[in-house]
Design goal:
Largest sheet: 3 strands, mixed
Shape: globular
Bound molecules: zinc ion
């Protein structure tokens, strides 16, 4: 099927839904703890599993309940992004299976899920405040409890890099 008409990701919707979930969860500061967020996603269970290394995580729905499984062998910071990304697929109503590989995916559903995940664990308003005093990627990544890779990508896509003193 030619899906050109649907090939543009709706990043605004992804951000809006992430902000709504943060608001529902009463979260206004970093780090965003996903167990506090997940309570506001109805019928959701999250657990670590043994997977092959190339699988970060997945989400399935079964009998009206949602299950997110993440790769228990992967680093915690990576799993935080994975879980946020899988929550996005649930909240955005994506029905196809996750084809995530790298940040900045061209697949519309994956791009939307990455945008939702980024806004959920690195909320723009919180990041803007933090970057006014914390001016390097390493410390920002620690503050938000995310990988340096995820924080670098977030700073590039939000065009906040002119606020940094250092990419280290
Ligand atoms: Zn995905």
């Amino acid at each position: 099927m030619d899906d050109d008409l649907n090939s543009k990701p709706n990043l605004n919707l992804a951000r809006k839904l992430a902000r709504q979930l943060l608001s529902d969860s009463h979260i206004t500061s970093a780090p965003v703890l996903l167990r506090n967020v997940a309570k506001y996603v109805p019928d959701l269970s999250i657990e670590g599993k043994e997977f092959e290394d190339e699988i970060s995580g997945l989400q399935i729905s079964y009998k009206g309940k949602y299950y997110i499984c993440y790769n228990a062998s992967h680093p915690v910071k990576r799993n935080r992004f994975t879980v946020a990304h899988e929550i996005a697929h649930i909240m955005l109503g994506h029905t196809t299976s996750c084809r995530k590989n790298n940040l900045g995916s061209k697949d519309p559903a994956e791009a939307e899920a990455d945008q939702f995940a980024a806004e959920l664990i690195m909320p723009l308003s919180v990041l803007k405040t933090a970057i006014s005093t914390t001016k390097n990627v390493k410390d920002l990544a620690s503050l938000f409890w995310v990988s340096k890779e995820a924080m670098s990508w977030r700073i590039i896509e939000t065009k906040l890099f002119n606020k940094l003193n250092s990419w280290g």
